[in-house]
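Limitations
The structure tokens in this dataset are predictions for the assembled complex, not deposited experimental models. Users should treat interface geometry with appropriate caution, especially where small molecules or nucleic acid strands are included. An illustrative entry is reproduced here so readers can see what is and is not provided.
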Amino acid sequence: MSILVIAEHDNHTLKSATLNTVTAALAINSDVSVLVAGSNCQSVVDSAAKISGVTKVLVADNAVYGHHLAENMLPLIVELAAGKSHLLAAATTTGKNIMPGVAALLNVAQISEIVAVESADVFERPIYAGNAVAKVQSFDEIKVLTVRTTAFEEAELSGAASIEIVSTVHNSGKSLFISEAVVESERPELTAAKVIISGGRGMANGENFSLLESVADKLGAAVGASRAAVDAGFVSNDMQVGQTGKIVAPDLYIAVGISGAIQHLAGMKDSKVIVAINKDEEAPIFSIADYGLVADLFDVVPELADSL
Amino acid sequence: MKVLVTVKRVIDYNVKVRVKADKSGVDLNNVKMSMNPFCEIAVEEGIRLKEAGIATEVVAVSVGPKACQEQLRTALALGADRAIQVEAEQGLESLNVAKLLAKIVEIEAPSLVILGKQAIDTDNNQTGQMLAALTGMAQGTFASNIEINGEKALVTREVDGGLETLELAMPIIATTDLRLNEPRYASLPNIMKAKRKPLEVKTADELGVSIKEHTKIISVAPPTERKAGVKVADVAELVDKLRNEAKVI
Ligand SMILES: Cc1cc2nc3c(=O)[nH]c(=O)nc-3n(C[C@H](O)[C@H](O)[C@H](O)COP(=O)(O)OP(=O)(O)OC[C@H]3O[C@@H](n4cnc5c(N)ncnc54)[C@H](O)[C@@H]3O)c2cc1C
Ligand SMILES: Nc1ncnc2c1ncn2[C@@H]1O[C@H](COP(=O)(O)O)[C@@H](O)[C@H]1O
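Predicted assembly:
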């Protein structure tokens, strides 16, 4: 058995999602390599080589891989899949964009968002917005998996992997990166934050999210949102937590003005401690909250910020 | 320009899901079934392109047993011109669905195929990407905006960091994210009219696709339940609990 993990990065920094994915890979077998495909991504390669348990880092450093366009990444990964038993990537928007196509070209299934490894061919994954957990067996020679990062610890950074250059260049010419609107923030990334405070429709507008920011400043927290808050234009899409947004599992999740629809719960119910602040004592969010405060958020959130 | 939209019949998103006692799956008996919400967005996008004079025909496709004709009729009532059901058993794996859809794409030769980004039953998020790989078409997944300019399309994608815009050479595959559009409801007269729109049935055999089992679901279990905790009286009590009981701040 030999496993290839596709690294998640932005050409400068190796994303911690890669570390969770390596942990999932090591739960399958100890022969784990990591592919860093990008453009001018040496700093990422340096970090990847330090991941404990990784034996080899494959490096495909070329402009065509800079934005991880599926059309260029697919043939590269398919080529490197020869002799591999498992291909893993984090279930991020990048991993989800690329891995199913890799699987299709290899004529194998993809098993999405695994949360547990039972054996080399049996995995657990949530279905129906996390309302059921399926145990799935693969019959394929190569298993293509995406990994729910919150279900696996981060691998440590005390290794020293060897480095191998991959020089093939695949440029389909069918897709071109035009622009991105990346939301810059000093705050931790939602999927890696220890504390998250999220706002919903109850926040009433985007400006009021500054109330959550004051709490987040005190706690070093990330700020998230429900779909309703994103749809209403209060905040940007990268903040959506839920079945179809980001899956988070911080030590502390504070839901403010969020009712607790199953699609929202799907994204945060594995948090260690959940706090709900809602003026409706019947709100379903209270049925999963460790601490519930029935109150008007505009009264209690400023008070919370002051008392931290 | 022809647009193909895909429609999956799934458990309605409002239904409380119950796992069967024998752990063989989820109980779908007498449960309300609907069009996957992301497919509603796909159908809506196709219809809007037609209304804008960019698309000339919108064809809806579903892979599944006869019951999925109900969702195809909904697509027709919403404004699709015709429908194709590819007959298959319930719960076909995404790769098999993608192979069947690839054959339909070969036959219909659409300029644009719009799928949902994710089916809310399997939560797979695979089929569109697989279809792109199998057909060699460029992909714009998790789209929040699709702009067709002749031979090229600009697709804006919802990614973890924010938004990303790609230029893709037509024909393309797009998958819908939540903010692409707000789907309309079908009107009663259109529901009546939809009954007379053409709905063609094809089989995997006719399409020359052999269905292969790549994975097997061994068991389906309910998730570990979270217990409701306590209500706190005020902010002071909350902060105290978080500091001294939960020890998370
Ligand atoms: C296909 C699909 C995918 C979806 N994916 C997601 C997803 O990924 N993430 C997600 O979050 N949702 C998702 N949803 C939407 C989900 O079903 C709910 O509509 C959404 O989560 C509701 O957001 P909300 O709780 O902010 O709004 P509401 O349900 O409107 O709740 C607002 C809450 O705020 C409270 N409130 C109002 N004012 C105050 C105040 N002053 N003080 C205190 N409390 C107040 C109210 O009591 C209420 O409980 C999805 C839906 C579908 C169909
Ligand atoms: N059986 C099916 N019939 C028609 N379309 C499907 C089917 N399965 C998946 N799709 C399409 O692919 C999208 C993503 O599904 P999935 O990859 O299963 O999460 C769905 O939103 C549909 O548009």
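Some entries come with short summary sentences. For this one: Residues A 200-202, 226-229, 240-245, 257-259, 261, 263-264, 267, 278-280, 283, 296-298; B 13, 37, 120 surround flavin-adenine dinucleotide (ligand 1) (CB under 6 Å).
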